[in-house]
Every structure is written in structure tokens, then in C-alpha cells.
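REQUEST FORM: STRUCTURE PREDICTION
Request ID: SP-0412
Submitted by: Lab K.M.
Chain count: 1
Length (residues): 194
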Amino acid sequence: MKKYLIALVATLGATPAMAHINPAEHASFSTGFLHPLSGADHILAMVAVGLWAVLLGGRALWAVPTTFVITMMAGFAAALAGMPLPFIEPAIAASIVVLGLLALMAFKVPTPVGMVVVGFFALFHGFAHGSELGNASATLFLAGFALATALLHMAGVLLGPAIARIAGDRAGRLATRLAGGLTALAGLALIVGA
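STATUS: Completed
RESULT:
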């Protein structure tokens, strides 16, 4: 219980870090594309969305990642419009752990529920991107980070099937679930190390 309390306090006490390329100085498609790839928090959360989507299967395979990208773009627009959104960093940190655990447990929900879950977290990821943009031009930056996000989702989606093709369906599903567990652990490590 003490570990959970420490993790919660560390998460709530986290402050925004500008560990990425400064988009206010370099607002372009390539900077937007590189932005999600320059932070472990973004990479882990985006890949976890793909991992969970493949385990949900069916329509969720495309609907869950698409919802994330669209809602992330809405969060970006909300930040640019100056709308307030509290707990951005804690929500981003929680997204890594929660999405990783959902993949680890192969937690089955109806596709619309999965879309709501990832949409909730996507709003915070998009808001963080928008709030870091400053006064730079947003259109090319937005297109770049939306594409990079979609590609990271695709990496998560393709992991299990790629292993399944080599080692069989059971091994592919197990690898996808283990990748989810590793994602959750990495998320906890980021929270504790913050």
C-alpha cells in the first residue's frame, strides 16, 4: 500500500517537462512528427493503445487507435484555444500504466467503451502537445504529430501478429500481453523517477 501511495503522490506532484524539441522555435511537419518520438511517455502510451486494440480485436483494431488520434487532435485544439485542463502530466503518466495493464490483462470491453477509455487519455496527450506549441504555427506541427502517433499505434497493433506469424497465434497473443505488462512497468518507473 505504501508503494501505491508514493506512486500517487509522485504522479500528482509531477510538473510539465519540456524534454522535447521546442516547437515554438521549430514548428514544422518534421518537428511535429519527431515530437511524440522524443519522449518515452508518448511512445509507451501510443504503443499500448495499439497493443490493447489488437487484443480487443474486430472493429476495435482500427476504431480504438483512430479515436485516440482524433481526440488527441481535439485536445491540441483545446489547448490552443486556451481552455483549462487540470492534471495533464498525471493523466499522461496514468495512461501508460492503465493502457499497459489493459493490454497485459487482455481486458475485454465493447469497442465503444475502449474508444472512450483511450479518448479520455488522448485528450490529455493532445492538450500537452498544444500547450507546448506556444505561438508557432500549428497546422504542420499537428499533422506531423498525428501521423507519428498513428504509426506508433500501428507498431503496437503489428507486434502480436508479427510474432504470431513466426511462432504461432498463442505466442503472438502472449507477446502482446507481455509487451503491455512491460509498458505498465515502464510507466511506473517513469512516475517513480519523476
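NOTES: The chain has a mean pLDDT of 84.
Reviewed by: T.R.
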